[in-house]
Amino acid sequence: MLAVILALVAALGFGSTAIFARVGMQGIRPLPSTVISTLISFVPTMLLALAFAWSDFRELPPIAYLWLLCLGALSFLGGRAQNFAAINLLGASRSSPFVGTSVVFGVLFAVTITGERPHLLVILGTVGVIVGLVVAIGNLTGQRWLHDRRSLLGYALAMGAGASYGGSNVLTKVLISAYGSPLMISAFGLMFGVLLLLPLAGGGAVQDLKASGRSRGFLGHVVLAGLASAFAIIAFGYSLQRSDVVIVSPIVSINPLITLLLAQVFLPGLERVTKQVVAGTLLTVAGVVLVIVGSTM
Questions:
Q1: Most buried residue, 78, 102, 204, 242, by most Cβ within 10 Å?
Q2: Which pLDDT tens digit goes with each residue over 38-74?
């Protein structure tokens, strides 16, 4: 049950990250925002890892650094960068259901690559999550989105982020099982994410901050996005330490509901949430409930 609670905490963190990023990117471009938020996520995570997981650092074999580099690339160069770009193009509420497809990719990779075997209720719950996502995005077909290049690019980026997150979920589980502390794995993943992103957008981040005095206010929201993400990443790592990807990943996918709720409260002028999106998200949550019940059997 602790794994379920930690997964729900992670969902809260990831859902909040999307809202903070949405506001921050009104003044700072998506890729520079990704760099800043990842750096902010890295600092407290590494400090905690050095304080509580120092023995795991010393025992880490050289080959592990290659896998941790892959984790950083998947999670931040592939996941967060595409996620923030999609949020900027579509809005947090419209992109989050697509990013939520990470549950599909995560379960698929976990079953085919690592050999996890979920309970029947977990399978049914995962199907419920997928159906909910389909319902949530179904209204797009009436919006001629195939003729809207901006929307098409946004949805493609959000789906790419979902695939990257799904792969990173499985890799995180494998690395934690092999090398120890979730704190240490999270810290190194963030470190390599920062190192990969800095050459691409480090200069752009500085330029954005200098371009406008208002960017300082937007910077605060990007910083909050980084802190919320660090909170979520750590909780997610510890949930994977205690349970399988096929259980944790569908539960964490509740984060679009959190994003929708926060968007209605804090971003009524920036975000528009339709009834169909809400209905689809509620179906997704129903699927998560089945996953939770199946995880106890």
A1: 102
A2: 999 999 999 999 999 888 888 889 999 999 999 999 9
Which residues lie closer than 8 Å to 47 by C-beta, 6 or more apart?
Answer: none
Integer Rg of the chain from CA: 18
Residues 119, 107: Cα–Cα separation, whole Å: 12
Contacts of the segment 206-211: beta carbons below 8 A, 24+ positions apart: 207/32, 208/27, 208/28, 208/29, 208/32, 209/28
Q: CA 138 to CA 52: how far, in whole Å?
A: 46
* Predicted model pTM: 0.82
| pLDDT per residue as tens digits for the range 94-145 | 787 778 778 778 878 888 888 877 777 777 877 877 777 667 655 554 455 5
Please give the C-alpha separations between residue 235 and each of 18, 87, 230, 283, in angstroms, as whole numbers. Answer: 17, 23, 9, 24
Tokens 């996890």, residue? 116
The full length of the chain comes to 297
In the chain, where the domains are located: 2-119+146-271
- How crowded is the C-beta side of 72, counted as CA atoms within 13 Å? 25
CA dihedral 133→134→136→140, nearest 10 degrees, is 140
